[in-house]
Amino acid sequence: MKLTPSKINLFLFSKLPSAWLCGVRLKTLNEEACTTTVTHKWINQNPFHSMYFAVQAMAAELSTGAIVMKEIKESGEKISMLVQENSSAFHKKAKGKITFICEDTELVKTNIKDCLSSPDGQKFWMTSIAKNNKGEVVSEFKFQWTIRKK
Fold first, then answer.
1. What are phi and psi of 136, to 5 degrees?
2. For the segment 25-58, what is each residue's pLDDT rounded down to a tens digit?
3. Of 150, 145, 139, whose CA–CA distance to 36 is shortest?
């Protein structure tokens, strides 16, 4: 069964309800990139009239993690995945609709191939860039994923 945005959004609803309630949604998942969105609303705001950083982190992590999930599924192998570290930088207040994009698909494919031949697994960093409706960079997130063959 192919992973699609609607299936992953259903997964969010059932397994990560806080992300769903805050408005995090996966929009596209293909061979080049993964895009997620979240819109600034009352439920995901901070005291400074913008989006709470943790909501941004959920959307950013999903944009990286969905790629890892997709590539693991397409490999046909049993592989575990986990975030080991993360870092972030905030450049502007997040207001309105924020779009997160990760374009590290080839990096993930390479690491999955390497993971299958290594008993120690692999570690790699993925980046998600968040932009507002004007195309301005709002924030940047980096996640270090670890994968290991089960």
1. -85, 140
2. 999 999 999 999 999 999 999 999 999 999 999 9
3. 139
pTM metric for this prediction: 0.95
- CA 146 to CA 144: how far, in whole Å? 7
Cβ atoms of 110 and 73 closer than 8 Å = no
Give Cα 128 to chain centroid, integer Å.
7
* Tokens encoding 56: 């941004």
Tokens of 93: 């207040």
Segment 80-103, tens digit of pLDDT: 999 999 999 999 999 999 999 999
Map tokens 């972030």 to a residue.
Answer: 88
Range 5-149 has CATH code 3.30.70.1050:
no
Give the DSSP per-residue string, the chain.
----HHHHHHHHHHH-HHHHHHT-EEEEE-SS-EEEEEE--GGGB-TTSSB-HHHHHHHHHHHHHHHHHHHHHHHTS-EEEEEEEEEEEE-S---SEEEEEE--HHHHHHHHHHHHT-TT-EEEEEEEEEE-TTS-EEEEEEEEEEEEE-
Sign of CA dihedral 139, 101, 36, 74: negative
